[in-house]
Amino acid sequence: MNRLPKDFLWGGAASAHQCEGAWNVGGKGISIADVMTAGSRDCPRRITDGIMIGEIYPNHEGNQFYDRFEEDIRLMAEMGLRCFRTSIAWTRIFPRGDEEEPNEEGLRFYDKVFAALKAYGIEPVVTLSHFETPYTLVKEYGGWKNRKLIGFFERYAETVFERYQDQVRYWLTFNEINHCKPDSDLGMWLAGALRVDKDEPKEQVCAQAVHHMFVAGARAAARGKEINPDFKIGCMIGYIPYYPASCSPNDVMAAIKREEEDYFFADVMVKGEYPYYKKAQYERLGIVLETEPEDAFFLKKGTADYIGFSYYMSNVYSDRMEDIKVSAGGILKTMENPYLKATKWGWAVDPLGLRISLNRLYDRYQIPLMIVENGFGAYDKFEEDGMIHDDDRIAYLKAHIEAMKKAVLEDGVEVMGYTPWGPIDLVSASTGELEKRYGFVYADRDDHGNGDWHREKKKSFYWYRKVIESNGEEL
């Protein structure tokens, strides 16, 4: 094989909370994203206790997709997208999260979105929970630390599986579930809807919440296959390869153990059981999970059909990381890699790291992979000719696509598709900025509320269109 498969899914990716806006329209309830304030490269977002007067919440506006979805999908079709990875906002369907009956107005909105996509031949790839847990489930139940959320999630998943069984074939359960780790308060909030009190054992609480999410995702996947056996239901992780800081065996072992923290999530969701190293760690830390007898059955029954993953950067790791300050945009600890350049947010630009990631994941799991996020955040500006010449973005994506092609054509990795992040500019999840732009299409709005939201095609729009037309041959 010297070309990508003809049915390769070229597309783009977004989430409901970062693009839809209309946070309180159509019966929608408050999600955990709706209580996150604006931030910046140097100032982290804050989580408020409900909606507070005087605070700025960028997700309340998103990029206006709720009102502009027809225009935006037309632009995606003009670009040639074969698929669009997006999410359903849980709180549009169950505003509180614990209702017995769904919100019909929310269901009708996605009826229209999926119909518009299908009209243009664009395949929906739908994430059930993309950092959008209902806020009520945090306030009244404690988030995913509470086992009751398994039933709430299963009811939500069953509702949308049944409603859209003829419109959607590809599904993902939880977005970047592996961010729910005790060393990241932001990650625990986004992925696990968790706020841990000072007197609570963070490692124990986080482990229990993750178990509940594993069971919820597996039960949902099993039910989805009963509703439509043709569904392809995958899992999704944020993947970052970790390179040892030196050839010291101590650094090598530290990097291996750090990568295990992410592999653990995929191990459970793909293999259907807890891996040996996590059992040993829990025993060492005194972590004891509260489980039900049927949990093991469903973990085996509801394993993933494919792995979706995000890839933006690689990191360097050492056994001396306690001396390293948090960097990479304030998200995680990393050491500077002298062989790589970085974005303005400190994310290492490493195309070869994508090929490494694809090989590592495929070697470990031997199931299809899908790159459901990859992209270049930058401050874009219009030039004298009225165009945004985002050549840095084109160069970034070109290099990553080349690396992906080598993984497929030379290494034999099975890759289903590639959906770069944010085809139309949207709110950054990590910083809450609109001006940290990823899109092929410019959304006219800045972080100070200026702009009328109109859309403008960037240079990368025309470049990506040729990439898709040529099935990746013309880069």
From TrEMBL:
Q: Does this UniProt record's set of keywords contain Hydrolase?
A: yes
Domain of life (superkingdom): Bacteria
Which keywords does this Swiss-Prot/TrEMBL entry list? Answer: Glycosidase, Hydrolase
Q: What's the EC number here?
A: 3.2.1.86
Gene Ontology CC terms, in alphabetical order: cytosol
Does this entry carry the keyword Hydrolase?
A: yes
GO MF entries: 6-phospho-beta-glucosidase activity
What InterPro entries does this protein map onto? GH, GH_1_N_CS, Glyco_hydro_1
Q: Which GO terms describe its biological process?
A: carbohydrate catabolic process
Q: Which NCBIfam families match?
A: PRK09589.1
Q: Which family does it belong to?
A: Belongs to the glycosyl hydrolase 1 family.
Instruction: Spell out the protein name for this chain.
Output: Aryl-phospho-beta-D-glucosidase BglA
What are the leading ranks of the lineage?
A: Bacteria, Bacillati, Bacillota, Clostridia, Lachnospirales
